[in-house]
């Protein structure tokens, strides 16, 4: 999808060389980490064939990312895909980059014969909720979290 801002972004798997961009994008999502931590996270995902980290680039610069985890669901008796992060740099919002990343995730999931994609979003991120609904995602289960600090 091309926009007034130019051609569609290129989407590709993230590599160790992308650690700085991944750290910057994660910070914008509210999950700051150092360059070294981002490099470690990229390495963990790259070593796991059930995880994927895709980077969107515009004019050679990272402008968004999406991470995906494929897993077997006992409840559904089938593989499902879970989006664990999706972010577009603020200066690139509303240019179709988020939709492009979702399309990549959906195509990857179809190739793996996954029929269900899940994504969780913080209750305060109402703009993200509207985005997901507009992209065909429906409200699902309520999610509960407990931090284990012991």
TrEMBL record:
* Keyword Acyltransferase applies: yes
UniProt KW Glycosyltransferase keyword: no
What are the alphabetically sorted keywords of the record? Acyltransferase, Transferase
Pfam annotation, one family? Acetyltransf_1
Q: Which GO terms describe its molecular function?
A: acyltransferase activity, transferring groups other than amino-acyl groups
**Superkingdom, taxonomy of origin:** Bacteria
- Boundaries of every N-acetyltransferase domain copy: 9-150
Which InterPro entries is this protein grouped with? Acyl_CoA_acyltransferase, Bact_Acetyltransf, GNAT_dom
Protein name as annotated: GNAT family N-acetyltransferase
To which species is this protein native?
Answer: Cognatiluteimonas weifangensis
């Amino acid at each position: 999808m091309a926009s007034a801002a130019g051609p569609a972004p290129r989407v590709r798997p993230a590599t160790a060389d992308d650690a700085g961009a991944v750290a910057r994008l994660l910070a914008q999502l509210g999950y700051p980490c150092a360059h070294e931590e981002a490099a470690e996270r990229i390495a963990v995902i790259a070593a796991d064939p059930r995880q994927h980290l895709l980077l969107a680039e515009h004019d050679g610069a990272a402008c968004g990312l999406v991470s995906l985890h494929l897993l077997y669901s006992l409840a559904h008796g089938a593989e499902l895909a879970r989006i664990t992060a999706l972010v577009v740099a603020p200066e690139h919002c509303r240019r179709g980059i988020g939709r492009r990343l979702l399309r990549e995730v959906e195509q990857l999931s179809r190739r793996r014969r996954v029929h269900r994609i899940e994504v969780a979003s913080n209750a305060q991120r109402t703009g993200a909720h509207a985005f997901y609904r507009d992209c065909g995602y429906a409200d699902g289960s309520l999610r509960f979290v407990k931090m284990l600090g012991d």
